[in-house]
Amino acid sequence: MPDNRRPPLDHVAQFARGFAMGAADIVPGVSGGTVALVLGIYDRLIRNIRLGARGLRQGLTGDFAGFRQTLRDIEWIWLITLLGGILVAVFALSSVLEQLLTDEPIAMAGLFFGLVVGTLWIAWNLLDRVDAVSVGIIAGVGVVLFLVLGLRESTEAAEDAAEVVTKPFWVFALAGAIAICAMILPGISGSFILVLLGMYTEVLGAVNDRDFAALGAFMVGCVIGLAVFSTLLHWLLENYRNQVIAAMIGLMIGSMRVLWPWPNGTHTTQLSAPADEVVLPIVLALLGAGVVIAVEHFSSRVGTMPDSLD
Predict the structure, then answer these.
(1) Angle, to 10 degrees, between the axis of helix 105-126 and the axis of helix 76-103?
(2) CB neighbour list of residue 247: distance below 8 Å, 6 or more residues apart
(3) With the C-alpha atoms ordered 111, 16, 218, 51, is the resulting torsion angle positive or negative?
(4) Hey, which of 19, 67, 100, 242 would disulfide with 85, CB 3.0 to 4.6 Å?
(5) Are the beta carbons of 85 and 18 closer than 8 angstroms?
(6) pLDDT at 308 over 50
(7) What's the CA gap between 52 and 59, in Å, rounded?
(8) In the structure, what pLDDT confidence band is assigned to residue 12 with cuts at 50, 70 and 90?
(9) Which of 108, 218, 123 is nearest to 155 (CA)?
(10) pLDDT at 309
(11) What tens digit of pLDDT does each residue of 168-209 get?
(12) pLDDT score of 310 more than 50
């Protein structure tokens, strides 16, 4: 049974990690999963989500004894503190980050590009071995995501797109299941997945119209997708960890198409040579990479971020 009795300082640190994850989820091409990987809590996060999926299955199948035991195994304080940080970041920073991404798209893209470069360095060091299989996975996943992201020139929904509900409920459920998976994988944000699926304005329309049936279908899809995917991902991390880390590296490399600063930052997946604003994005990229590596180095030295799969 996990020990949820943590000192207050640990709760503050956990809240800060959640805050960083929430801030990352606002940016196209960056996900909370990327931050969780940097902070060394990715495996622990997936383990707790998988336990929640197991508890849900036990409750639905009538295994109430197993359900109660699973509820005791989940690190509730750890999860709630993390979720609190994520929610606070989304509500507090969404307008600020969106304004910065609008006013300074190239500079901000440079910063986030550097953050992902630093994360790649950390993820590379997580590989148990670098062989032909892992290199092939990195290249394959990276190329596929790079091409998929290029299917749309813009990372945002069209400005004149109507925010109305036109899709059936099962489409909302499917979109929720896919988008929630993207949010826990390093490399791509769930909001951009909704843009790619053509569901971003649909979900906004459901929120604006208080269409609780459509939102309910979306949330059910999120729960089902998270339950299935977290269970699969936990199993893969236990049995094929090196290959999974390689795939995550590929995802982050592919996602850098969105974060390339030129010509217009994260607003487009188009690519061009550096022009006009060059020095500041490069400086911010170097700063971002340095901060990520420094955070990981400090975390490993103080040993405050347990990440076992026990």
Answers:
(1) 140
(2) 137, 138, 141
(3) positive
(4) 19
(5) yes
(6) no
(7) 10
(8) confident
(9) 108
(10) 40
(11) 888 889 988 888 887 777 766 676 677 777 777 788 778 777
(12) no
Whole-angstrom distance, CA of residue 147 vs CA of residue 144: 5
Reading the block at residue 119, the tokens are: 């994360």
In the chain, % of residues over pLDDT 90: 9
Residue at token pair 């400005």: 159
Percent with pLDDT over 70 in the chain: 84
Identity of the amino acid at 248: M
